[in-house]
Amino acid sequence: MITRSKEGTKSSSGEKTARLEARITVAQKELFQRAAALQGRSLTDFLVSSAQEQAMRTIREHEVMELSARDREAFVTALLDSPEPGPRLRKAADSYL
């Protein structure tokens, strides 16, 4: 029995079940076909792997913060050597909690 996931990406047996279609120009299709051929891949494999790589890169860029050495030191110092909360901060915390 093949069970499709809610998103339809793969069944429990690993079968691909989702479908994605896009309208593109003839020039775009020729470009994609040429690139796929240069890599010795099918057009589908080339497009899926390229889209997946770009999606992962985009997500990583939005989820990961890279700091310079100076900024990293300032961040760690602020965490480890944070001052005691002042009266205004205590009052705000008390009203929040």
UniProtKB/TrEMBL annotation:
It comes from the Bacteria. Transmembrane segments: none annotated. The keyword Cell division does not apply. InterPro entries: Ribbon_hlx_hlx, TacA_1-like. Keywords: Toxin-antitoxin system. One of its GO terms (biological process) is regulation of DNA-templated transcription. Belongs to the TacA antitoxin family. PANTHER family: ABC-TYPE TRANSPORT SYSTEM (PTHR35401:SF2), COPG FAMILY HELIX-TURN-HELIX PROTEIN-RELATED-RELATED (PTHR35401). This is DUF1778 domain-containing protein.
